[in-house]
């Protein structure tokens, strides 16, 4: 990344900019900043009017943006989804999506439904097999330009999705099924391929599941995914796009109430949520 590292936090006291180790509060709202032209340059030169000694409690880094998601963008995800859908006759669908020019894109959450750092996430009561999906979240303004990145958790009911591909909205969209945070790393440039996404799920004093992947395993770039997303759809406030997961827990694992899900992407930070 060229220039200083810039992070925007969405807090209970408004937007906070972190730059060169200092924190201060811009006067504009989250939605206004996200859609400001040349945001990285603007924030790098912004005169610090009001400094903050402490970071107020965090909210999800999202305003009026819709959250969308891409599926089958990693080989590991392709393999897992083929296996879970095989009994329902839909196993070949995911192989075809992985190889196809057109990506799988689906609506995940309205901004108001997204959970922030430390907020509880949920699993469906009518699901038997639920997993977190750690993902890089790419942010785009209302002109379709890359603004930066955060961390996303696309909580999913794999048994419902595997029963029939047409049940995907029920497997993906429910209260507590999406978390974002802790910050928006503002950069107009892609993150390097060696960037690691790491998952750790704590259960009491034990580690119930952990794993990692790198962006080098991501088959479709955020820019490629966004080109399809913006092709016939407008986003007046911009949008957030979850770029898919390359970390799939074992088939005998399911999230339980009280589990603590920790997702780390070093340039951005760590997102922690507990299952309620």
Which consecutive residue ranges, at least 5 long each, have pLDDT under 50? Answer: none
Mean pLDDT: 93
Structural class by helix and strand composition: alpha+beta
Strand order of the largest sheet: 4-3-2-1-11-9-8-14-5-6
Relevant CATH superfamily of the largest domain: Fumarylacetoacetase-like, C-terminal domain
How would you spell out the order of helices and strands? EEEHHEEHHEEEEEHHEEEHEEE
CATH-defined fold name of the largest domain: Fumarylacetoacetate hydrolase, domain 2
Rg over CA atoms, rounded to whole Å, is: 18 Å
What is the helix content? 10-25%
Strand content: 25-35%
Total beta strand runs: 16
Q: What is the general shape?
A: globular
CATH architecture group name of the largest domain: Alpha-Beta Complex
Plain-language structure description:
By secondary structure, this protein is an alpha+beta fold. It has two domains: 6-52, no CATH class; 66-274, Fumarylacetoacetase-like, C-terminal domain (Fumarylacetoacetate hydrolase, domain 2). The chain is built from seven helices and 16 strands. The chain has a ten-stranded mixed sheet, with helices on both faces. A hairpin with a 2-residue loop joins strand 1 (6-11) and strand 2. Helix 3 runs antiparallel to helix 4. The longest helix has 11 residues, at 75-85. The radius of gyration is 18 Å and the shape is globular. The model has no long low-confidence stretch (mean pLDDT 93).
